[in-house]
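Researcher: We're teaching a course module on how sequence relates to structure. For the next exercise, students receive a sequence and then see the predicted structure as tokens, so they can try to spot secondary structure elements on their own. Here is the exercise chain.
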Amino acid sequence: MFEGLIVLFVGTIVVLLVLGILAVIPTLIYKFLEKKRELGELKPIPQPTRQVTVSELLKPEDIAVITAASLAFIEHKSIEISKNPIIKQIPEITRILPLLGRIYEADVKISMGGREEIINVRENPNGSLIVKYKGKPYKIQLQARSD
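Model: And here is the predicted structure for the students to work with:
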């Protein structure tokens, strides 16, 4: 008779401990992601430099290739995401994919002016794109505006 009560209490304690651990895990994951996000947002101390526009650094043809690669990557990513039935039902999931470690990367083939180039484009967790063109990485930050 007492053995049954002992088993009942021990089982109840084990179940409550497991549920407590399961309740703590999402909190720890949230704190870890917050720290990771804060570290990513730290900016280096600005050094006094001269303002340089993009057009001074790159030729217009290079700017066109980088822009075309970025747009082709965004189109490729949207096509790939739209194939997922869960994301079709809940499109807000796409905002948290980079936080979960799901970062898209693709080699984009661009044909301009009779030449073809394969350009590597990948997505950063903060929403920017890294375009590797002619051996150099270029960071592209996309912003939506309404004028």
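Model: If you want an answer key for the exercise: The CA atoms of residues 131 and 138 lie 5 Å apart. Residues 2-41 form the longest helix (40 residues).
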